[in-house]
Amino acid sequence: MNDKVFTLGDLKIGESGYVKAVDADNARRRRIVDMGITPGTQIHIVKAAPMGDPLEVSLRGYTLSLRREDAKSIQLLSEEEAKVMRAEMVTAQRQLELEANRTLSHAPDEDSEHHRRAAMLTEFILQKQSCPQSCENCKAGCGLCGEEDELSGTVRIALVGNPNSGKTTLFNAMTGSREYVGNWPGVTVEKKEGRIKNSSLCTHNHDMVLVDLPGIYSLSPYSMEEMVARRYITGEKPEAIVNIVDGTNLERNLYLTVQLMELERPMIIALNMMDEVEKRGDKIDFKKLSLELGVPVVPISARTGIGIEELINNLQRVIHAAHAQYHEGFNIEPDDIYNGYTHAIHHRIGDLVDEYAEKAGLPLHWAEMKLMEGDIETRRELNLPEDIQRQVDNVVEEYSASVPLGDSESMIADARYRYVTRVCSVALKRGQQPGELTSSDKIDRVLTHKIWALPIFIGIMLCIFALTFGTVGAWLSDMVSLFVDEIFSPYVRGAMETAGAMPWLVSLVCDGIITGVGGVLTFLPQIAILFFFLSILEDSGYMSRIAFIMDKPMRKFGLSGKSFIPLLMGFGCTVPAAMGARTMENDKDKRMTILLLPFMSCSAKLPVYGLIAGAFFAKGRMMVILSLYVLGIVVGILSGYLFRKTLFTDNDAPFMIELPAYRMPAAKNVFTHVWERVSHFMEKAGTIIFAMSVVLWFLQSFDLSFAMTADPQHSILGVIGGAIAPVFRPMGFGSWQAAVALLTGLIAKEVVVSSLAMFCGFSLSAGGGAVQGALSGIFTARSAYAFLVFVLLYTPCMAAVATMRRELNSRKWTAFAICYQLAAAYVVSLAVYLISGLFC
Amino acid sequence: MSQGFWYILAALIVVWTGFCAGRWYKQRKKGSCGSCGSCPYSGNCHKQDKK
């Protein structure tokens, strides 16, 4: 007899199997089961990433990427064995169920009235498009509200849904906000609030507040976003929940819906991406869906290109439905999700914990089901006395032992998915034949191809760099610096001198502020171009593919493919990137990612590279900048490897991501991203860089006795810099100017440029030769490169350090991060200087 | 132009510098870069925690 367990990891591409059980630790099993990998589910291997890992599998009408290691924990059965197992389970439960049905405390169809009510509301909202008699005070003029609303007050509406289901797009459209939207999961990591301000939308005389919650797959207690969402719903009790469901992936999305129904709050479903559903040829019967679920359903396309008017209509429907829910507050106790036996068990638990659930402010049904799942957070919240807890555990054990699977968590997830499958079989008609390729599949055949994926990825990155730092970007930067240094600065100087301004004030404005702020603004076009391309990559859905492609190589260095997105965000700014690391379930991955983030060269360092590379390596400027970015990545990878071997030796967290469908990037979205980045940079230039320029000008123009001095070396700054400078002498940049420039970089990295421009008195538009001439007193080509390496690797700005401190939640780790980065910067910079000395 | 005008200009520069430095100092403690107004990631920032 062959005892070898047959797992998903054993299947080849194109093969299928049926899930028997998931053999993994609690958190890992929970995550796998929540994604629909429950006993009896058919699972098919679609493809593998270029390096053979992760795998893309299809199940329940959607595709999911997971690692081979996780795939090996999913035990499989053949089709025949699966049928036998299912039959055994049914037989085992039938008798228990018959017994249970006799003892149930209420009839299962008690909620049928609410189901009908939900379907009626759905039908009403779908049919009533025009206004029969316009309401006097209504700007929207749709008339759906019927009569004036006498009840006023704040209505809090929580937006809840799977990652990348369009919550933030809907939130922005309704509130007029400009929150960050991306075509990859995990964009939102904290809840955000906004008032519905759009004058075209009727809020029925209410102050309506939308709360955008992080994207979640379930309400398990293992990830921070899930905890944020469930704590908000159970703790703050919003007046209505709008569950955003991705219509293109109905089955998997409704799994969360079922759990939200258990929270017993008034809820509506906004069925999003209906334009894509139609494009695929699928049909969803909204009325049947609402009748089955007992929840009103509103079809929408939040992202849509079908026009503002249609979008407003969609949003208005959501508001009407949410408003109706606010007043009627109907919700169902979702008993018909589970079979009679599960139902009876949860009632038995309910009898035990009823008063404790009420005391803890938790919905009883929710508390019962969560206890059956062994949810640690709910156990903590209920704070049951020991004897009651023991009785609950006994009931749960009895439940687990009732079927051959013996795992209550999987049984409940399986029951939920079976219910969802039943609902979908009634409400969803697929237009696409099984195995038929979508446009995204066809694009993926090229972009995630076994051989071509990596060269294409590297090619895309090289093109972006060439356009940003080479041709277009360099030309635009030259234009800006020409304007600042040749037109604006001389004009201001001339005007002030003519008008009789004091010489020190002329110096402050022209040599301090204009040189400092203008020097930084010169790099604005390059930042705009870089973010233009990054936005396109995000919006198109390619970012998630990068995580899929890069997971295996990153794991070799102790990181997850999921780390790739925060690390990529790190090329923009370390602050949001460190916060983006929250989406990682595993503490080790999160900590590692945060520690390595500062090695990813943030956009604020770009002006420093541009200045020095342009001056000392004019011909190879682009390659020098590219080499710095690559060096940062290499140091990050090596540090990851070192940390994995020494500090973080635990097992890897599961890697599961969905590859979103490719979408044409919306021009408005892309330009909004670019504008936000550019305006952020300009705001920084007008505030902190302005202030630093003034402070530096003062410190550079006055000596220790506060008398004005023409020799910067005797200035306050010269004295401070002179004391630190010897530390940097071994790397070849031991001048006070370089030392002070590095110190000021702790405020914001762009300040390094303005500092050098002020200390060395050069004009950025004067060309690389002139800048090199001005800097030649403090740098040689070798030491200039070593200086750039130090800037690349040393401690990030103070805002980033404070964020790291908060996210790491440890002073010890923060201190370690700072020391490690300083040491890495010093060692690598010294090595670069010494090794380059062997060749130059 | 009278000298008074230039002194006012200098004072404004000093006040603005002080304001920006003060704001930066307050924000950095919260891990924010101090320019939340136009930050594309403001949803991910600590400013939101107060809500």
Supply database-style keywords:
heterodimer, A: 840 residues, alpha/beta, SH3 type barrels, Rossmann fold, Helix Hairpins, 4 domains, six-stranded mixed β-sheet, 33 helices, 8% strand, elongated, B: 51 residues, mainly alpha, 1 helix, rod-shaped, disordered C terminus
What can you see in these coordinates?
The complex is a heterodimer of chains A (840) and B (51). With 840 residues, chain A is α/β, with parallel strands linked by helices. Chain A folds into four domains: 8-77, SH3 type barrels (Roll); 111-328, Rossmann fold (3-Layer(aba) Sandwich), CATH 3.40.50.300; 335-429, Orthogonal Bundle (Helix Hairpins), CATH 1.10.287; 456-651 and 702-839, no CATH class. Helix content of chain A is 58%, strand content 8%. The longest helix of chain A is centred in the middle third of the chain and has 46 residues, at 453-498. Chain A is elongated, with a radius of gyration of 31 Å. Chain B contains one helix and no strands. Chain B has a domain at 1-29. Helix content of chain B is 53%, strand content 0%. Chain B starts with a helix and ends in a 22-residue tail after the last helix. The longest helix of chain B has 27 residues, at 3-29. Chain B is mainly alpha-helical and 51 residues long. The interface between A and B is large, with 49 and 36 residues.
